[in-house]
Amino acid sequence: MKYVLDSSVAFKWEVAEADADKAIRLRDESRRGLHELLAPDVFPVEVAHAMTRAERQGRVSPADGWRLWLGIIMVGAGAFLVLYAKEEAESSGPKPHPPAAAANPIAPST
Question: Which residues span the domain enclosing 83?
């Protein structure tokens, strides 16, 4: 089954919240090939916003925020790239490349 992956669901993969067990089950089932996850182009930014908000609320330490975001994006990037490829194949013209953060995450410089 195909699902469009919402950032709030993916966020629960790394940060304990209500219904995190359901989100983790969806992720695990997609890894086993039971589901195809698709993600919109704003997915990496939405996850980063949720992570920043969690840091400000003290639910996630700033030191862990990057690692947790990367863990989500590494799983979600595949979903994002699948949706991007399908949209490109269905469109009549070329589209800009996906955001670098989704395609090739690189740690920020310190």
Answer: 2-103
In this prediction the pTM is 0.67
Structure confidence at residue 50 (pLDDT): 93
Residue 85 belongs to a domain: yes
Question: Residue 85 — pLDDT band, cuts 50, 70, 90?
Answer: low
**109 domain residue, yes or no:** no
Q: For the residues 83-109, what does the mean pLDDT come to?
A: 50
Q: Dmax of the chain from CA atoms?
A: 46
Query: Could you write out the three-class secondary structure of 52-84?
Result: HHHHHCCCCCHHHHHHHHHHHHHHHHHHHHHHH
- Is there a domain that residue 108 lies in? no
Residue 43 contacts residue 98 (beta carbons within 8 Å): no
